[in-house]
Design brief:
By secondary structure, the protein is α+β, with helices and mostly antiparallel strands. It has 2 domains: 45-194, no CATH class; 237-404, no CATH class. It contains 9 helices and 23 strands. It has helices at 102-105, 126-130, 268-274, 283-286, 301-314, 336-341, 343-348, 354-360, 396-401; strands at 7-11, 18-22, 27-29, 36-40, 45-48, 59-74, 77-88, 108-110, 118-119, 144-162, 165-168, 173-174, 195-198, 216-219, 224-228, 233-234, 238-240, 248-260, 292-295, 328-329, 366-380, 384-387, 392-395. Strands 1, 2, 5, 6, 7, 8, 9, 10, 11 and 12 form a 10-stranded mixed beta sheet that branches. Strands 17, 18, 19, 20, 21, 22 and 23 form a 7-stranded mixed beta sheet that branches. Strand 22 and strand 23 form a beta hairpin. The longest helix has 14 residues, at 301-314.
Length: 405
């Protein structure tokens, strides 16, 4: 699967030096002053496509952009695919319906109050636009569909009116359709600005460590983790499973406790029966609470479900240590909100028999109760990370390719 990040032109918030960020960047280090900063995101990022019409009155038109994995559940299995699409965020017959490859081909800029021009107000909710990305099948009935690991953003494309014609402000070429006059009340200047804060530990002031696409940063001085929230850095609960070997590499997983309607899934024994595993549930397993285990890192769609299935079926019972593990720690790139969102499609992967899946999947409701970030140790080999107890391996190329997801 080939993926491509679009690039954003920006300036260092400390010294003003020019910088180029990737869409997935959450930590930025200036190449000039070397100061590290965290990007805070309240809801979704907003960008503008730079125009080439300096002497024109620019009109910015909003587009939703969705990038992530789409999981579609049918009676005979789950179909996964990666998608990268854009859709017009207003109802219009004369603007292009999508941006095509423009968002990947051009360097974008963060929207700011200083951006000059007229902005059309988005009137199409993302949920409505997302229906255009849904899987359609005329052969098999679709039981359930979910978007996982998505990156949602809004991109403003530049246009201008000249001699009663609509022009593309990037190519300075007219469109064949002449629009009606725009109503001023439909214009709305977005009051939004990207926010940076210093990547320093709020507890002790030490430099926080983490890769540029990581949602969590580590303080090696006071042995804690900080999550880049909407307004500030927040301190999530975390733990680590014990490693019985040296030079371990640690992959993050979300351990999630949830209530599931329509079916009984409170204990490990309940899961054994529901998934029709080749073993007899013991009385001890009837008292073991059931947890969903979901990757806290983005990977290709089919690998995401496989890792979740292996961890959930294994149900680790190790005593957890509430301190940062020593060794290579892979970044958290999938928030718990999206992991929770994926629980139903994950559940559909092990419900047996198929008749139960068809009858109950549409009625099942999952209510989140508790999440814990758990670092799981893997043996660090040349090409793979191997978990011998769970019998699971992760190829390093898979993790490297996922940095652009």
């Amino acid at each position: 699967m080939k993926t491509s990040d679009f690039l954003i032109r920006h300036e260092c918030p400390q010294c003003g030096a020019p910088a180029t960020l990737a869409e997935t960047d959450r930590v930025f280090q200036c190449g000039y002053c070397k100061v590290r900063s965290c990007l805070l995101q309240k809801d979704f990022f907003r960008y503008v496509i730079p125009h080439n019409a300096e002497d024109q009155d620019i009109l910015y038109v909003p587009y939703w952009r969705f990038r992530g994995s789409v999981f579609s559940c049918f009676s005979d299995g789950i179909r996964e695919r990666f998608t990268d699409l854009s859709h017009l965020a207003i109802e219009s017959s004369y603007f292009p319906l999508s941006l095509g490859f423009r968002s990947q081909a051009l360097k974008l800029q963060f929207l700011s109050p200083e951006t000059t021009g007229h902005f059309l107000k988005p009137t199409l909710p993302f949920e409505t636009a997302a229906n255009c990305f849904n899987e359609e099948s005329s052969i098999k009935p679709l039981l359930y569909q979910e978007f996982i690991g998505e990156t949602v953003s809004m991109i403003y494309a530049p246009f201008y009116l000249k001699e009663e014609k609509l022009y593309d402000a990037v190519l300075n070429k007219p469109y064949p359709i002449t629009p009606v006059s725009f109503e001023k009340e439909k214009e709305s200047k977005p009051d939004w600005r990207i926010r940076f804060i210093a990547a320093l530990c709020p507890n002790c002031g030490w430099d926080l460590q983490g890769e540029r696409n990581s949602l969590t940063l580590h303080c090696l001085n006071c042995n804690c983790i900080w999550h880049t929230g909407e307004q500030c850095l927040t301190k999530p609960d975390f733990a680590a499973m014990p490693a019985t070997w040296e030079d371990a590499a640690w992959l993050p997983f979300w351990r999630i406790r949830a209530d599931v309607s329509e079916i009984r899934l409170d204990s490990y024994a309940d899961m054994i029966r529901l998934a029709n595993l080749p073993k007899i549930a013991s009385k001890e397993e009837d008292n073991m609470p059931f947890y969903f285990w979901m990757p806290a890192f983005k990977v290709q769609p089919q690998s995401f479900l496989r890792f979740a299935h292996n961890m959930t079926v294994y149900q680790p019972q190790d005593e957890l240590a509430h301190e940062l593990p020593k060794g290579t720690i892979y970044p958290v790139t999938l928030p718990d909100t999206q992991a929770i969102q994926s629980l139903k499609i994950h559940l559909a992967g092990f419900i047996k028999p198929k008749k139960t899946l068809e009858e109950k999947l549409g009625e099942i409701r999952i209510t989140h109760r508790q999440s814990l970030l758990v670092y799981v140790p893997f043996q660090n080999t040349h090409h793979e990370l191997i978990q011998p107890d769970i019998i699971m391996s992760v190829h390093k190329n898979l993790l490297a390719a996922a940095k652009n997801l």
